[in-house]
Amino acid sequence: MRRKITYIIISVCMLLVIGGCSEKEVAPVIKDKNIVGKEDNKQEQYNKSKEEKVDNREENGVEEENIEKEIIEVKTIVIDPGHSSVGNFEKEQISPDSIKMKPKDVLGATGDYTKVPEYKTTVSIGSLLKEELESKGYNVIMTKTEESESLSNIDRATIANESKADLVVRIHADSSEDHSVKGASALIPVKNQYTDNICEASKNYGEQIINTYTNELNIKNRGTISRDDMTGFNWSKVPVVILEMGFLSNKEEDNFISNTENHERIAKAISKGIYKCFE
Fold first, then answer.
1. 20 to 30 A Cα–Cα from 224, which one of 27, 101, 201, 233?
2. Alpha-helical segments (H) within 81-198
3. Which pLDDT score, from 0 to 100, does residue 7 have?
């Protein structure tokens, strides 16, 4: 009997030992599950971080596109100083379908009092206007830089068309047999089959330029004048304005416009009008 009891006790102890070992073997499995959970969290954090980086790159990409867009939107202004010292009296068509012809490059006016020819004044002011516009970030193209350069009106329009200019400003001065006539004006294309696409913009720009110019210089404002007989208008595919700065036949305006000491001020007044065109 005692042996049986002893055998039972020994058997129970062995079962307890075996059971304890089994429990110890289960514990690492539970621990492994915890490790897997932590790894899942790490993977989620990594994925989240990766998504944030992608978003940042996308945001930077948008910024780069905006910068590129700003560069593309830089305005191109063509400055066309009127006339030349040599002229060209050969004739050209006034419009693509017209049989009417006009001289390619007439000599322009001369100051009745200063005796300074128009072409000297327009080249001088045109060059200063170029510097002023470029200082503000505009892309500027000159049709000519020398007084002796003679271009036809079709040539001038072609330069502007090929450059896809946002605006062409042709610089001129007026003259009249009546010395009392004074004031500045902006000539713009009348609406016709050739100018339909540029007429409205040319009118708006012409108004901005002439209003600003006359206000800045305290010159009489003769407003905008529509013309259908200008070769440079009828051949143009981009907005164009002729600024008549004043009358060289008027003593006061001749003395002001022809004096090189005033040219920087005149150029600044024209540039301010151009800035307003694109505000």
1. 101
2. 118-135, 153-162
3. 53
